[in-house]
Amino acid sequence: MNSAREESTIVSRQDVEDRIRALLDGMSLEEKVGQLNLVQCTGPHVVEDLAPDIRAGRIGSILNVEDRDAINALQYIAVNESRHGIPLLIGRDVIHGYHTIAPLPLGQAASFNPAVVRDCARVAAQEASAFGINWTFAPMIDIARDPRWGRIAESFGEDPFLTGQLGTAMIHGFQISEDNGADTLIACAKHFAGYGASEAGRDYNTTNVPLNELRNVYLPPFQAARAAGVGTFMTSFSDIDGIPATASDFLLKTVLREEWGFEGAVVSDWDAIHQLCVHGLCENDVEATHLSADAGVDIDMVSAAYQQHMPELIANGRMSIARLDELAGNVLRTKILGGLMDRDVTSPPDEPPRMAALTKVREAAEQSLVLLRNEQNILPLNAAHIERLAVIGPLADEPVEQLGTWIFDGDAARSVTPLSALKSMLDGDVAVDYVRALETSRSRDRGGFDDALNAAGAADAVVLFLGEESILSGEAHCRADITLPGVQADLVRRLRTTGKPLIGVILAGRPLAMGDIIEHFDALIYAWHPGSMGGPAIADTLFGRCVPSGKLPVSFPTMSGQVPIYYGHKQTGRPATPETVIHIDDIPAGAEQTSLGMTAFHLDAGYQPLFPFGFGLSYTTFHYSDLSINHHDIPMGGSVVVEASVTNSGDRSGTEIVQLYIRDRFGSLTRPVRELKGFKRVHLEPGETRKVSFRLHTDDLAFYGRNGQFAAEPGAFDVWVSASSVGGLHAVFSISG
Residue 595 — pLDDT band, cuts 50, 70, 90? Predict the structure, then answer.
């Protein structure tokens, strides 16, 4: 495999820099600023509207032009009618698919399978590039530990290691091609940085992230993206310690450029340069332009602040031509390394075969499903033992809603819904009675409950499709109460009274707090928003054609008030244990006030999540044994090999995601109680045993310590090989000083 980016490395770095220098030397001030100008233009006259500015070199990038012919015409003007023939960056939010939609990134993360994430990005890149798009604003690799935040749907969850691995896979899927790179997209790692820590889970809100957390939790996935060769970075809307990311010298100069050596373009988020004034950092757009450009934002997304005010800053000596050349040079370098300067950008490749794309996203949907509950092995269902199946709920037959958030170009005609997939699979052998029961997931009208109860009463089993419509998650769609919206919980309780097996399938863009109703389900599958082929994936899993293997990439709270709750928390001085927890209902009336013996828990929710990170059931069972480590004491710079045997102890073949966790017992800064350091998908036949091996180098145990340096520290480490972030086989090793 190769990409335009990889091919360009054959040419020496000096050749690339000479090419940039030659272009800059021939460009006017207006043309240089034009390379920094990203504009949006929509409507039927987009070519006529943009053509004069493109010819004059006043535009370097466009976004949200959807028509293939219009994009080709604009590129033709840029390449053939402007002075320097520099192609345009054509940007679009291609997040988890273009026409064919894969599961949400959070759902893809449940697969713990980088290959699946890469393949879904490859499909998206092939489809989008066929319409002339060459730049996507993905992956979003913000660490998301607050499910109230709508954009958790775009994330890979709460863990830095998993996010780094999957973000790398998505970048490779977008940017690496098997041909000349024409069917690739330049990826964009966003949002740099800390956006996932928005206070109260409210989008665009302030983030208060201590330097320790920033360095050790929020930045590692971005560093992994840099190492993966990501083409661009996007700044976060939010401020950190009083400085919005779009004006942060620390993030953009110290970390990104100086420490990591990134040489591509940095783009602001939508209108973020102007919004520095709204934040209260700048008095006007002139100052916002100065601060953003000085910090290192190369491309101004839609605010036009650079175009309007940068010449003025240069004229009055507040900004140098050399600085402008750096910014424009970063954009040119991105275009060169992305292959745009060396291929015919006016003739995009053909769109890939639809069936091949659907096959890939179906595989992703299958691996994204997480079995959270399966009492008395009610699943998988056996069609031979069922005469009537009741399918109930507002999300059983919604082609658009199953696609999820931020799918501007998604083709709902490609969706196969769960209801249609079940009818097709059962094909008259089992009668399928469908009752919507609620008009939407938010509905409070119980008028359809009686029909649902009648259908359930006449059926041998009930499959209930609940959750959230896609509009309830994503950018600017945050929720304070993350229980099932509307009266869905009441519907669950009513259906429970029928005594029929009740199987829940949840379609949602975030973890939902279901502590009040979880016991009413005999079985529960979490399907996220599973994309175009979510229906067949769900149907096949319900009836055992597929064995669920997904694991949670984020912890599920019992109730909304537990948020944030995540596995990699600190120990505290008073860690909770099962023995120390008391429930609010167990406190006698008139009890004396005391804190003696108390620990860190909620009186009404305890201290544990409803379901922990890494959790997921299967239709078979897996037994872990024979943990071994080859060294109990290793020198700095050494490695330890951790091995364990995993046996399929059930009667069906299945795939287990084996996880490796560590804990640094004592450090110069307090460390998390567990950290994911490895995972492997292992397929086992019934009775089969396989030894799973992980190698840990001391570099894998490094962190930014009290002195601000990134290094491993001597001392004792716990290590677990386990099926989730709870429990597992345990051993101890040490790094000698």
Answer: confident
Q: How far apart are CA 721 and CA 719, in angstroms?
A: 7
**pLDDT given at position 1:** 37
User: Is residue 716 exposed (0-12), middle (13-18) or buried (19+ Cβ within 10 Å)?
Assistant: middle
Reply yes or no on whether the pLDDT at 564 is more than 90.
Answer: yes
At 79, the amino acid letter reads V
* pLDDT for position 11: 65
Distances (CA, A) of 142 to 136, 198, 663: 16, 11, 23
Number of domains in the chain: 3
Express as a percent the part of the chain with pLDDT over 90.
Answer: 95
Sign (positive or negative) of CA dihedral 331, 134, 96, 224: negative
The answer to whether position 371 is within a domain reads yes
Q: What is the 3-state secondary structure (H, E, C) of 263-325?
A: CCEEECCCCHHHHHHHHCCCCCHHHHHHHHHHHCCCEEECCCHHHHHHHHHHHCCCCCHHHHH
Q: Which domain holds residue 692?
A: 622-735
CA–CA dist 359, 362 (Å, integer): 5
Q: What is the phi/psi pair of residue 56, to 5°?
A: -85, 0
CB atoms under 10 Å from CB of 555, counted, come to 28
Pick the closest to residue 270 from 98, 74, 39 (CA basis): 39
Q: Do residues 448 and 511 share a domain?
A: yes
Q: Which of 239, 269, 285, 300 is catalytic?
A: 269
The three state secondary structure string of 159-205 is CHHHHHHHHHHHHHHHHCECCCCCCCCECEEEEECCHHHCHHHCCCC
Asked if 635 and 603 sit in the same domain, the reply is no
Q: What is the pLDDT of residues 478-537, one digit of tens each?
A: 999 999 999 999 999 999 999 999 999 999 999 999 999 999 999 999 999 999 999 999
Residue 5 has pLDDT above 50, yes or no: no
Q: Residue 269 catalytic?
A: yes
Cβ count within 10 A of residue 651: 10
Smallest Cα–Cα separation from 230: which of 338, 329, 302, 336?
338
Q: Are both 588 and 504 inside the same structural domain?
A: no
Q: What is the pTM of this model?
A: 0.97
Task: Assess whether 534 and 679 both reside in one domain.
Answer: no
**Is residue 368 domain-shared with residue 515, that is, in the same domain?**
yes
Question: The CATH number of the domain where 477 resides is what?
Answer: 3.40.50.1700
Q: pLDDT by residue (tens digit) across 223-242?
A: 999 999 999 999 999 999 99
Distance CA 252, CA 222 (A): 12
What would you report as the CA-atom Rg of the chain, rounded to the nearest whole angstrom?
A: 27
The verdict on 492 and 525 lying in the same domain is: yes
Task: Kindly state whether residues 390 and 489 are assigned to the same domain.
Answer: yes
Residue 658 φ/ψ, nearest 5 degrees = -85, 130
Contacts of 312 (CB under 8 A, 6+ apart): 286
Structure tokens that stand for 439 in this block:
């008009």
Question: In this structure, is residue 589 part of a structural domain?
Answer: yes
Phi then psi for residue 321, to 5 deg, are -60, -35
Domain membership of residue 721 (yes or no) is: yes
Q: How many CA atoms lie within 13 A of 477 on its CB side?
A: 18
Write the DSSP symbol of residue 100. Answer: S
Residue 659: closest CA among 66, 225, 159, 318 = 159
Q: What is the mean pLDDT of residues 706-733?
A: 97
134 residue type, one letter:
N
CATH number of the domain residue 699 falls in: 2.60.40.10
Whether 102 has a pLDDT exceeding 80, the answer reads: yes
